[in-house]
């Protein structure tokens, strides 16, 4: 297995070889050691609670509001970035955030992660989600991502879990990231047929106006979420290296560009957690190992958030 470096300057140049199964992306002048990027604390100090009017706002899209204001907490939006099979690492990290009193009020997902976000939005527990996705992961083993066999398995799962469900019908405010071909950017879909939006994110075809969010950037999603929430948390598993078991130069181009953008530009989120799963391929079959990395990363996250919680927000 050989490595091929992708260097991102003004644009992405990549060469192809049908014998290559794994490639690294290298970027100059970028510190890739940090797994956390924070702009402000997600917690409100007790001294500030009385002076702040924090709480849910009217979400324009789904016409969904909350019955009571949350005066001692920020309204948190959680965005699960794309990452195909590496997205399984999100499950333990989300549980970790909840334990630290950072439960989300709005959840958005892109690509494969949109399924995970939807399961959480419909109030399934981490254990239930883990089990459902584990069963599905067993069925997609040894299948090439985005192939006919892989897609049929995914469609079967989506049909079983989300048939006849509406995005706005979830317990929590749910948004599915999609790339709008007319606007040429990622948008958030807050209402409509959930199954349709999920399948748009699990295909690389251009059959309609809204397609897979991997063709756009995280920035547009974060900006939309900031209009609806006090605090935006982004979870990321793409990392800094692109690895694939599948030999598909088109995928290298699409995901390579996405990773390059995420590294070149600083996140606009209030808190971004980059789960260290760089060693795994996007189409890895080692789902259990991916989840274990997420669990181990939780220890670091909890320690970090505990320190923040003990400090007053400036």
Distance between the termini: 50 Å
User: In the CATH classification, which architecture applies?
Assistant: 3-Layer(aba) Sandwich
Share in β-strands: 5-15%
Query: What is the CATH topology assignment?
Result: Cytosolic phospholipase A2 catalytic domain
Outline the fold blueprint:
Elements lengths: L35 E3 L7 H4 L26 E5 L9 H10 L6 E4 L3 H9 L4 H15 L7 H15 L10 E8 L4 E5 L4 H7 L9 E2 L6 H9 L4 E6 L12 H16 L6 E4 L12 H23 L5
Parallel strand pairs: 2-3, 2-7, 3-4, 7-8
Antiparallel strand pairs: 1-8, 4-5, 4-6
Key structural traits:
314 residues; alpha/beta; Cytosolic phospholipase A2 catalytic domain; eight-stranded mixed β-sheet; 9 helices; 8 strands; 34% helix; disordered N terminus
Report on the architecture of this protein.
- The chain is 34% helix and 12% strand.
- It has helices at residues 46-49, 90-99, 113-121, 126-140, 148-162, 194-200, 218-226, 249-264, 287-309; strands at 36-38, 76-80, 106-109, 173-180, 185-189, 210-211, 231-236, 271-274.
- Helix 2 (90-99) links the parallel strand 2 and strand 3.
- The chain has 314 residues and is α/β, with parallel strands linked by helices.
- The protein starts with 35 loop residues before the first strand and ends in a 5-residue tail after the last helix.
- The chain has nine helices and eight strands.
- Strands 1, 2, 3, 4, 5, 6, 7 and 8 form an eight-stranded mixed sheet that branches.
- The protein has a single domain (36-42, 72-239, 264-309), classed as Cytosolic phospholipase A2 catalytic domain.
- The radius of gyration is 19 Å and the shape is globular.
- The model is unreliable at 1-33 and 47-70 (pLDDT under 50).
- Helix 2 (90-99) runs parallel beside helix 9 and helix 5 (148-162) packs antiparallel against helix 6.
